[in-house]
TrEMBL record:
A molecular-function term among this protein's GO annotations: 4-(cytidine 5'-diphospho)-2-C-methyl-D-erythritol kinase activity
Domain of life: Bacteria
Name of the protein: 4-diphosphocytidyl-2-C-methyl-D-erythritol kinase
Stored InterPro entries: GHMP_kinase_C_dom (IPR013750), GHMP_kinase_C_sf (IPR036554), GHMP_kinase_N_dom (IPR006204), IspE (IPR004424), Ribosomal_Su5_D2-typ_SF (IPR020568), Ribsml_uS5_D2-typ_fold_subgr (IPR014721)
Ranges for domain GHMP kinase C-terminal: 191-249
Amino acid sequence: MIVFPNAKINIGLNVVSKRPDGYHNLETVFYPVSLSDALEMVEAPKSGISFSGTAVHGAPEDNLVLRAYNLVKKDFGLPPVHFHLHKVIPTGAGLGGGSSDAAFTLKLLNNFFELQISVEQLKNYAAAIGADCPFFIENRPAFATGIGDVLSPVQLDLSRYKLLIVKPPFGVSTPDAYRNIVLSVPSFSLSKIQERPVEEWKELVKNDFEKSVFKEYPEIENIKMKLYEMGAVYASMSGSGSSVFGIFRELPVQIPGQFPNDYFVFS
Ligand SMILES: C[C@](O)(CO)[C@H](O)COP(=O)(O)OP(=O)(O)OC[C@H]1O[C@@H](n2ccc(N)nc2=O)[C@H](O)[C@@H]1O
Ligand SMILES: Nc1ncnc2c1ncn2[C@@H]1O[C@H](COP(=O)(O)OP(=O)(O)OP(=O)(O)O)[C@@H](O)[C@H]1O
């Protein structure tokens, strides 16, 4: 069975408080995008994972795909399986690629082995893996609070716009970004985002990570400015970076030529 775990972008991100467990409460809008990995699972004599595509760091047994499999196996005694992960979504990019792989693994196991796990229980498994992970279970535009795990759907449809995602040749560590965050009191609640046209977002919708991350990596701010110069209606860093997305009415021509060769450009 093959599935295609997709990336997300964060439209706005307000980090509102630090919790006693070290995590942060936030407000964000998750929006699924079509940039995707490919994940295949077959039954095999021994469990494992192989890779192709862009490099995935870390030991295979630490991969979030195997962590998701082991979590479900504990409760359901699954047979051994082999996964092949073709990685396309860059890591350290704020695009949630690893979280999506894990969430799609949970859904894949549920479907393949007919485990009858409810959506709520799938979200609980996902929350045990990472804060971004529960969103990818239902994978639809959602306003998120808590640590990113309390989700309510928003009627947000950007399909008449074009999206351009630019990833510089380096990533940003999520734990480091949270360590350096400056907390904010949101002046606009992202739960109301669908009521405001994209044309107004530039003034209303902020990502709190930008301040500290731009200071350390001015190149990321340059990408954002470039996207506005290219005619973006709205541009922002996604999550804790390092990728930046631009929302356009029409995509500018010759996009890759606008950025150096070692930048990934996805449209
Ligand atoms: C930046 C975002 O991508 C925005 O969607 C997410 O908040 C990050 O989610 P994630 O990568 O799934 O995060 P996890 O793997 O659960 O946590 C990585 C680290 O980020 C920090 N972390 C994460 C989420 C959160 N709400 N508060 C935090 O402080 C914690 O230090 C944690 O150890
Ligand atoms: N399946 C996987 N794909 C990518 N990275 C994985 C995976 N499993 C574990 N990891 C580890 O997780 C780290 C973060 O990867 P991820 O793709 O979630 O990027 P991110 O940009 O930090 O996402 P986020 O938006 O959640 O902050 C990687 O550096 C890698 O060591």
